[in-house]
Structure formats: C-alpha cells, structure tokens
Amino acid sequence: MTNRPVRVGIIGCGGMARHHLRNMLVQQDTTEIAAICEPSPANYDAAAALFTQAGLKPPPNELDLVRFLSANRNRLDAVLIVTPHAYHHDQTKQCLDAGLDVLLEKPMVMTAAEARSLIETRDRTGRLLVVAFQGSLSPQVRTASNMLRSGELGSILNINAQVWQNWNSLTGGTWRQEPSLAGGGFLFDTGAHMLNTVADLAGEEFSEVAAWMDNRSRPVDILGAVMARLQSGALVTMNACGDTIPSCNSDIRVYCTKGIIRTGVWGEMLEVQRDGRKRLRKHVVPASLGVWEQFLAVREGRIENPSPPEVGLRMARLWDAIKASAAQNGATVHCN
Prior knowledge:
alpha/beta
C-alpha cells in the first residue's frame, strides 16, 4: 500500500450512504472520494451538499454503473455500494471484476446462492470484499467475540437479542417496503444487524430455527420473533419490533457459565459482568470512526477481515431458515 489517500467511488447516495459520507469526509488524510454513481438527482444534490459543507468540491456523478466503471476503474482503488438490496449481487460482482475492492452495505445479498457467487468472484479476482455490518466491524463486538472464543467467560448458555425502531412509519412508500427490491422487511433491514451480530457472537452455526413474522398489513414483515438452537445446544431468542414509538435501539445479552456480556446490534456499547461481580461494568475499547475506517484497516493489512462475504453467506442461510419457518407458522426448520 502507498501513503496516498485511497481513491473511492460511491455507488448510491441515499440516506445511509450520506451517513457513511459524513464519517468519510473527516478522514481526508486517508480518503479521497473521487466519483459518484447515483441515478437520483435529489440524492446526488443531498450528497453534494455534504462536500460543500466540508469545503470540498463535489465529485462528478455518473448515472449508469457500466459507464461509471468504464470511466473510473483505472483511477479508483475501491467503491462503497449503498443501494437497494436486490442490486447488491450484480453491482458488487461488476466492481470486483473491474479490479476494485468493495465495501458493501448490509445485507450482503438476497439469497445464499448469490452469497456463494460473490465468494467465487472474490476468490477469482483476488479483490477485497467487506460487508458493512457495523457490529462485526466494531471494536466492541470484536472484543466481545474474542472473549467468548477464548473461553474466559466459559460456555455460552443463552443469547437474547432485541432491536426496535419506528421503521414502519419511516419507510412506508419507499423501496424498503417493496419485496422485489428489499427482499424482506424490518427483520431483513435494520434487523439484519441483529441477525449478524448474534451469529458473530455465537461463533457457530445454527442447528434449529423457529420464527414468526407479522406484516401488519404491509407488503413486508414489520414484526418478527425468532427462537433457535446453536449446534452446541445453546439457546437463542431474537425479537424485532419495527412499529413502535419514534426510537432506534437494541440490546444483546450473552449468558455464559462464567459471566455475562451486554452489547448492541451495532456494537454501540460493551459491558461485562464476570463471576463474583454484582453488576455489569463498562468495558472500554478503542474508539472507531465507523465502518470505513475499519475497511481501510483491513485493506492495509492491519487487521483481518472481520466481515468477509462468508459472513453474508451465514446471514443468508439464517434468513432462509427464518423465512421457511415463518411461512409454516413457526414450524422448526433444521439447518444443514
């Protein structure tokens, strides 16, 4: 790696992309945002305003991805893809084939078959693919996962997780409630962070899954409840409420034979209660500027990739089992 800033292209400039941009624009010593691909003039204008506020000239916009890659592939190092879920597979494959490293917004893909396809493309091209799960990329969840893998807290007995948001009112009338574009509702969107972080902390595959989802007269799921068993026999419960009062929060508890961990689906905190202590105590870890900073650390070889496409495959398998069970009114689905 050279010392020059990484030249990155942004594919998609919706609300989540602009969230990432705010963090990226304060990292000008490491990051040069050189090009944008956004078909919506309104989204591009909103993104351009962030550059102006930061004292920077907005990069040029190309509406079509094929033309974007043709014009920019030789002057970019990487891309950040933040587009509707249904586009993730094809867009990522095109970018990897163009020789670019990719940071891909969650959920990685719509199906396990698409996940396997991106793993094959990653292996064939030798490029880097990181899935932008804030949880797996956070120092808090990485620290918690390492604690659990080391055995210092004993064996996992139960994991309980919940995430809630007024998602229904926020996303009504948008692509996030169109099944063909979104692939699911609250549990596959905001709730995807919960599914991924729980699986990350568990550190093993699921053996059985039972799930229920309620669309509340919408075209996609708004409420969801999942009960599962890990291959080790540990029990898991996950609850997703996407139609509550204005809020967005989460809580994950991991109960072990020698301690308890509390964190969140985005890794927003880390607390630990060890055997002999009366309460959870904050566990301090290094601060992070977000997923882009972690992507750069992976790209530079400073850390191993904690969120590779294998994570996306794990998530896709779990989501497939949840959908299959919910379609049978909570019948237990045995995972292969």
